[in-house]
Design a protein that fits this description.
The complex is a heterotrimer of chains A (448), B (148) and C (367). Chain A is 62% helix and 1% strand. Chain A has helices spanning 3-7, 9-20, 27-64, 80-90, 101-119, 136-144, 146-158, 161-192, 197-202, 208-211, 213-226, 251-276, 295-316, 322-350, 356-385, 400-405, 422-425; one strand at residues 445-447. With 448 residues, chain A is mainly alpha-helical. Chain B has 148 residues and is an alpha/beta fold. Helix content of chain B is 22%, strand content 31%. Chain B contains three helices and eight strands; from the N terminus they run E-H-E-E-H-E-E-E-E-H-E. In chain B, the strands form two sheets. In chain B, strands 1, 2, 3, 4, 5 and 6 form a six-stranded mixed beta sheet that branches. Chain B has a two-stranded parallel sheet with strand order 7-8. The mean pLDDT of chain B is 84. Chain C contains 15 helices and nine strands. Chain C has helices at 48-52, 60-65, 72-87, 93-122, 127-147, 169-193, 195-201, 209-214, 220-224, 231-234, 255-279, 331-335, 339-343, 348-358, 362-366, and strands spanning 3-5, 8-12, 24-30, 33-40, 156-157, 160-161, 298-306, 309-317, 325-329. Chain C has a three-stranded antiparallel beta sheet with strand order 2-3-4. In chain C, strands 7-8-9 form a three-stranded antiparallel beta sheet. Chain C has a two-stranded antiparallel ribbon with strand order 5-6. The longest helix of chain C has 30 residues, at 93-122. Classes of the chains: A mainly alpha (448), B alpha/beta (148), C alpha+beta (367). Chains in contact: A-B, A-C, B-C. At the A-C interface, helix 8, helix 13, helix 14, helix 15 and helix 16 of A face strand 1, strand 2, strand 3, strand 4 and helix 4 of C. Strand 1 (445-447) of chain A pairs antiparallel with strand 1 of chain C.
């Protein structure tokens, strides 16, 4: 048994249970079965929570939008997500003709994988975790980065232009937001002195939400963007590119994308609860005091709090434009995260082992810095964000493209591109010969 | 109230600017020769005191022996209006000059008249069917169209 | 292996959540930036003008319902005014007031739909849309009291309206008038104080006044560009000359101004309805007009300020019972003329927003 597994109460109990009725020489089997059981519980737990999240989101959105939400299937519509899953499973699984079959099939699986990988390191109760990696925080970041690739693969493999738009947006957005996401976590690591998530929870004498307001803000924004939740849901913007990268997915493949999205919200909320709200601990009283509720329940409650926050934001905010989203990442969140690192670093350097009074002083300083930064940057953003960005940079195109774009041919137009009248120049695309022609079936990129 | 200008008075002005264009004036309806329509429109748009800068609508009417194309004009500055009409003869290729260079608002409307009534507008930058599809048989708003 | 970027032609529509019907845009993109646009019409073309030539004057009213189906009342009104002008009918006083009330209610309903879908196009996940629809529902209830229908009203007739408002219509209308301003305040707060909305709409899709006039744009889109041109003021019909109201105009002609113009127009509509309710005289709601009208040969053009812009009917009579020619000057159709100027150089997301801010209705575009 590994060293960290010994401390893991859940695992130990299950192991003891299996070991109890197994002959001594089959100890390895009990070891294996216990691990399998924990994983089984975790994965299904995440799936159930994702289903619950779907239900909660739909009901809450209904409330936000002065309507009822699903309330037909089961009591209060509680079985709605299961009805949805059954429907998705029974649907025909369509692979478009132009799609790259292998990548098309691979993408949804890749999308879901990080979801379960994250759960491995998140402590979901006192002494309850699958692994307490000493690089837990790093592992989180590394694992979530997989979904970027999955989104891009999905969009690319579909062979649909809308999906391609979604995929291109996704790559730009997800990679940009990785940076502030990682930097926001540095503050937490500085305060903890460890990257293991269990240690992060134990180090929170005060919830890091108080100590790291800027870090939390940046992390929340970046996570929203990574999960493509509103207002950063550009890659699946239904009013623009309809569903973006998963436009052609149907049946359970679509279901997997949905699962990844909703499950992602749950898991990210769990991570946030761990990193910023003391994980399984009672958040209101100092550590070591009597727990009012069981640790698992606290953890669930905190997760639900952040899930609610995500839903609330989604019901409230319209979508940003791609340049505004990128601007937010590089011009606002990145500097904010850096400021947070500097301030936290100085504080940790001054007070390596802070007393309670010093902790509260840190809280005050950090909130003051956060307030000043947010006011300053929102003023700047107002100036940047409102600046219109229309720039007509005509693509150089051969005139035949005009016919590709237009349906049918104008009357009196003999098809000779050189014979355009003065009035027609208004309609022709400025350009010259020899430039790349737009492909009618292509993806905006081609191999030369 | 939008004041309908007396066509006979507008006709005098038009005769000064574009001699020989007016055919007939009656009430607020001014008939002009089809081949001069663009010049007349350009004149009406810019003539001081008239300044018909807003083209309300273009309509084609099929009177069997001829097509009448009706331009409703309004001046946003003086708030007066004029109905400009022109008769185009011939069932096969009735043609008259396009007024898109004068008012861009004529763009889709001329295409519509062409599509539904079969009146060609010469000099239109993009004259093709707009409401029906390419290859639609005939022009549906003509009185001899049997589609309906 | 090297990768080379190339322009992409994307079909937006005819089935697309943000084209407000079956509109189709063929767009040439360089990355996300719109290089050229070709609108394709006709997917909802039902030949209304041809159908009108084979129906008696009164029967055409039902066809006009199907033009701009979110504000059928103004369509009825424009057509009925044209028939009255053609046949020289003096409508009943009470009927004219009822028409104005119905048309203004229709305008509020249409602007609510426009605002809601505009915010939906911006990406607000249905929340503002549902709020707008909640209020629109109340207007539809009022309409149902008036004429028994909720979408296709066919309420107006040459000479007035086909029936007087029922007794319980007036208290319901008064309650609506009392509660609506509060809701409009809420909507205005939502539009003017949300940073994301401001960032997405201010300065986006600017339509200069000269271009707007030259392109025959009308309605809120024209007024947002700073042109004070409202048919209700410049060429009053029915009883608008007896009512006091202002014409809100924009300054920049961007998407934000177009939305704000619509918002303020809703307030003015409430003002108009309040005055109309106060002024409405007793009497018959409809003048005596035979069902089969035979207007003298001639032509007439009548226009109204519909929520989308100037809706005009040009009727030609040959003395028969059906119009010889019935031309519909539809604002949605003509407002799309400057589409190319508006969209070039903006990004895909802006394209949707700018298009949404023009507020078209496919029933009217394709007729």
């Amino acid at each position: 048994m590994g060293p960290w597994l010994v401390q893991n109460s859940v695992y130990r109990n299950i192991y003891a249970f299996f070991d109890g009725f197994m002959p001594a020489q089959l100890g390895w089997l009990a070891y294996f079965l216990a691990g399998f059981t924990v994983m089984f519980i975790l994965i299904n737990g995440v799936l159930l929570l994702a289903a619950g999240m779907v239900y909660a989101e739909r009901r809450l959105l209904g409330r936000f939008q002065v309507r009822l939400g699903p309330n037909r299937v089961g009591p209060f519509g509680l079985l709605q997500p299961f009805a949805d899953i059954v429907k998705l499973l029974l649907k025909e699984d369509v692979v478009p003709r132009g799609a790259d079959r292998l990548l098309f099939t691979l993408a949804p699986v890749m999308m879901v994988a990080p979801l379960f990988l994250i759960t491995a390191v998140v402590p979901f109760g006192k002494n309850s975790y699958l692994a307490n990696l000493n690089v837990g925080v790093l592992y989180l970041v590394a694992v979530t980065a997989i979904s970027t690739l999955a989104v891009f693969l999905g969009g690319w493999a579909t062979g649909n232009k809308y999906a391609m738009f979604g995929a291109m947006r996704a790559v730009a957005q997800l990679i940009s937001y990785e940076v502030p996401l990682v930097l926001a976590l540095v503050g937490v690591v500085l305060l903890t002195g460890s990257m293991a998530l269990v240690q992060v929870v134990e180090a929170q004498r005060l919830p890091f939400l108080l100590l790291q307001p800027l870090g939390f803000f940046v992390f929340f924004c970046a996570t929203s963007a990574e999960l493509n939740r509103a207002p950063f849901d550009l890659m699946e913007a239904e009013s623009e590119i309809i569903a973006g990268y998963h436009i052609e997915y149907s049946g359970m493949r679509f279901g997997l994308f949905q699962l990844a999205e909703f499950g992602g919200v749950v898991v990210s909320s769990a991570v946030m609860a761990t990193l910023f709200l003391r994980g399984w601990e009672n958040p209101f009283v100092p550590q070591g005091w009597t727990q009012v509720l069981p640790s698992h329940l606290w953890f669930l409650l905190k997760t639900a709090l952040f899930v609610f926050l995500f839903i609330w934001v989604r019901a409230t905010l319209p979508r940003l434009r791609i340049d505004q989203v990128m601007g937010l990442a590089w011009k606002v969140l990145l500097p904010l995260a850096l400021i947070n690192i500097v301030v936290t670093g100085i504080e940790v350097w001054l007070w390596p082992r802070p007393t309670t009074a010093q902790l509260w002083a840190m809280v005050l300083i950090n909130w003051a810095v956060a307030g000043a930064c947010l006011v300053g940057f929102s003023t700047l953003m107002e100036r940047w964000g409102r600046r219109p960005t229309a720039t007509v940079v005509p693509v150089r195109l051969p005139v035949e493209v005009r016919y590709a774009l237009w349906i049918g041919r104008a009357e009196g137009d003999d098809g000779n591109p050189g014979q355009l009248s003065a009035e027609a120049l208004h309609y022709s695309i400025p350009g010259a010969e020899g430039a790349p022609a737009p492909s009618l079936s292509g993806r905006g990129l081609r191999v030369v | 109230m939008t004041k309908p200008l007396l066509a006979s008075e507008v006709a005098k002005r038009v005769e000064e600017g574009v001699p020989g264009a007016v055919e007939q004036a009656q009430g607020d309806h001014l008939w002009v020769r089809p081949e001069r329509i663009r010049e007349v429109c350009r004149f009406l748009q810019s003539a001081p005191g008239l300044e018909f800068n807003y083209l309300v609508s273009i309509t084609g009417v099929d009177y069997i022996e001829y097509f009448e194309v009706v331009y409703h004009l309004v001046s946003l500055r003086y708030n007066h209006s004029l109905v400009l009409k022109t008769r185009v003869y011939g069932r096969e290729e009735p043609t008259l000059p396009s007024v898109v260079p004068v008012w861009q608002g004529a763009d889709y409307q001329e295409r519509e008249v062409y599509d539904l009534m079969g009146v060609r507008f010469e000099g239109h930058p993009n004259l093709k069917r707009i409401l029906t599809w390419e290859g639609f048989p005939g022009h549906p708003l003509r009185k001899d169209h049997l589609g309906a | 292996m090297t990768l080379q970027g190339e322009p992409v032609i994307l079909n937006i529509g005819p089935q697309h959540p943000s084209t407000h019907g079956v509109f189709r845009l063929r767009v040439l993109f360089d990355g996300e930036v719109v290089q050229d646009v070709e609108p394709v019409f006709g997917y909802l073309h039902r030949g209304t003008e041809k159908l009108a030539e084979e129906r008696a004057y009164t029967q055409v009213i039902t066809l006009t319902d199907r033009l701009d189906y979110v504000s059928s009342m103004t369509n009825n009104q424009a057509y009925v005014l044209a028939v009255e002008k053609l046949a020289g009918i003096q409508p009943a006083e009470r009927g004219m007031y009822l028409r104005v009330i119905a048309a203004e209610l229709s305008r509020i309903a249409s602007h609510l739909v426009a605002t809601g879908f505009f915010l939906q196009d911006l990406g607000a996940f249905a929340t503002p849309l549902m709020y707008c629809f909640r209020e629109r529902e109340r207007i539809l209830d009022l309409m149902e009291m008036l004429c028994g229908a909720r979408i296709t009203f066919s309420y107006m007739r040459p000479g007035g309206v086909f029936q007087d408002a029922p007794e319980d219509f007036w208290p319901a209308l008064r309650q609506f008038l009392a509660e609506m301003p509060h809701y409009l305040d809420e909507l205005e707060q939502l539009l003017t104080e949300n940073e994301v909305i401001l960032a997405r709409t201010k300065g986006v899709g600017v339509l200069p006044a000269e271009v707007a006039i030259n392109c025959s744009v009308s309605g809120p889109v024209l007024r947002a560009s700073g042109v004070r041109w409202d048919i209700r003021k410049v060429d009053p019909y029915d009883v608008y000359d007896r009512l006091e109201f202002d014409i809100p105009i924009g300054t920049n002609g961007d998407c934000y101004d177009r939305m704000m113009v619509r918002l303020y127009e809703m307030r003015q509509s409430l003002r108009i309805i309040e005055q109309a309710v106060r002024q409405i005289p007793p009497g018959p709601a409809r003048a005596k007009v035979p069902f089969f009208l035979r207007p003298p040969p001639g032509d007439a053009y009548a226009h109204v300020e519909s929520p989308k812009g100037e809706l005009g009917f040009y009727l030609v009579s040959d003395g028969g019972i059906a119009p010889y020619r019935c031309k519909i000057r539809s604002p949605s159709f003509i407002n799309l003329t400057p589409l190319r100027e508006l969209l070039r150089g903006w990004k895909l997301a802006d394209l949707i927003v700018i298009f949404g801010s023009i507020d078209i209705n496919m029933g009217e575009v394709d007729r």
